Amino acid sequence: MPELNSNPSPTVCANNCQWALSIEELNRTCYCLSLDEAALRRELAAELGGRGLSPALVESHPHLFASVPMFVSREHVERMAGVIRAVETVVATPVFRRAALAWAPRIAGFAPGSPGGLLGYDFHLSVTGPQLIEINTNPGGALLNAVQGRAHRSCCADAAGFEMAPMEADAIEAVLLEIFTTEWRLQGRDTPLLSIAIVDEAPEQQYLYPEFLMYRQLFSRHGIEATICDSGDLVWKDGRLRNQSGPIDFVYNRLTDFALEQPAQAALRLAYLARKVVVSPHPQAHAIYADKRNLTLFCDETFLRTTGVADDTIVMLLAAIPRTQIVTAANRDELWKRRRELFFKPAAGYGSKAAYRGGKLTKRVWEEMTTTTYVAQSMVAPSERYVADKPAATALKADVRNYAYAGVVKLVAARLYQGQTTNFRTRGGGFAPVFTEMR
Q: Does some domain include residue 108?
């Protein structure tokens, strides 16, 4: 394997950081980018205000935006993109789809015709290369990361020899809008998209509600009537899905009831199965991509060879997917003995809820886990990014999220945190833009 520590061209910034250092050393020692936190906050407030959000978001969500960017080598950026393409290659095979749908809820068998919207591929960067720890179908933060990236850039003129992996905010907004219009067309619509509802449970109480407001403004700027509502506000009437504002053409689905099983989703489920509304992400997308049991297939060489994909695709996935297995009655005792080297996640989990680092598990919680399907994943230590603090610098954990559609990466961002999982409660942590070497 090629050397993973990358050394950019020697450059010295205004704060005397040596760009000749390796990527890992920069993440340990460089705090100069966005060191002027007051300037960064002013830029964020201006960006948010320009997009219809209160600049006070910077104060009300103090740990949403990290104080520093993350450095990621060009090789890692490109390798992550390759892993995502490999996943898409396997997902496209009938063998994989049959296997994934076999353990999915029945509604996942309904194929609306589109990929299902933006995906979030979350990686830890290890000494052997990027490790894909999970895939999510409703990844929050794309618009927020675009805005933050633009604000960071205005504070980071010293980053000679580096560029930001994310596009500029305006470009990302155009890309995201194109994804929605593509979903619209692929689900069989040949008329203009006129109305869209951003749907979640109690949306105003969601931590990323500010991003819902940004999406609403984005749609409205392009002539699409956009509303934000609770799924319980949806009704099925006269052959159309409606809310208080009128008929709905498209539901941007931010629900975590991925199979639309709860009573509050009854109207949405009926309209979706009747093909009277476009839903994205949809239940099949979650079943195909985000059910964590699917990771057991991506790291199983015997299974991968039955799909008919090329050897290089198999080699890439085996190197990039941590060993994952379903927790069963037959293997529970053995997994408990090895728990310190494992991370346990509910198969249909989201947002790190009910996920446990094996070394932190108690016997009581272990027994409670028998009521839910779990996977056990080999532990992969996250990267570290140091942030300036007093009296000494503080090490934060970091994962890297690739936002992708149909196998193509649209945006790369990091999340900095302390604790077991990402939590947006860490001083200096939150979403962070990614810097990589210029081509």
A: yes
Q: Which tokens is 368 given?
A: 């409670």
This prediction's pTM = 0.90
| Distance (Å, whole) CA 125 – CA 105 | 33
For residue 349, is it within any domain? no
- Total tally of structural domains belonging to the chain: 1
How far apart are alpha carbons 279 and 268 in whole angstroms?
Answer: 9
* Residue-level pLDDT at 255: 96
Question: Do 438 and 163 meet the contact criterion of CB atoms below 8 Å apart?
Answer: yes
| pLDDT band with cut points at 50, 70 and 90 for residue 375 | very high
CA distances from 47 to 25, 56, 67, 143, 156 (A): 31, 12, 16, 11, 16
> Residue 238: inside a domain, yes or no?
yes
Assigned domain for 313 exists: no
| Closest among 431, 39, 435 to 207, alpha carbons compared | 431
Which tens digits make up the pLDDT trace of 229-252?
Answer: 999 999 999 999 999 999 999 999
Tokens 């942590």 locate to 429
What is each CA distance from 43 to 62, 214, 307, 436, in whole angstroms?
A: 15, 17, 49, 22
Structural domain of residue 186, as residue ranges?
37-293+383-437
- Whose tokens are 């449970």? That residue is 201
According to the model, what pLDDT value does residue 7 have? 36
CB 241 within 8 A of CB 268: yes
Q: 310 pLDDT exceeds 80? A: yes
Per residue in 179-210, is it b (16+ CB within 10 Å) or e — as a string?
bbebbbebbebeeebebbbbbbbebeeeebbb
- Tell me if 75 sits within 8 A of 84, measured CB to CB: no
Give the position of tokens 């080598």: 73
Structure tokens at 240: 């159309």
Q: In angstroms, rounded to a whole number, what is the distance separating the alpha carbons of residues 6 and 168?
A: 24
pLDDT band at 139 (very low <50, low <70, confident <90, very high): very high
Q: What is the pLDDT of residue 52?
A: 66
Average pLDDT over residues 276-301: 98
Scanning the structure block, which residue is given the tokens 């705090």? 31
Flag whether pLDDT at 266 surpasses 90: yes
Whether 44 has a pLDDT exceeding 70, the answer reads no
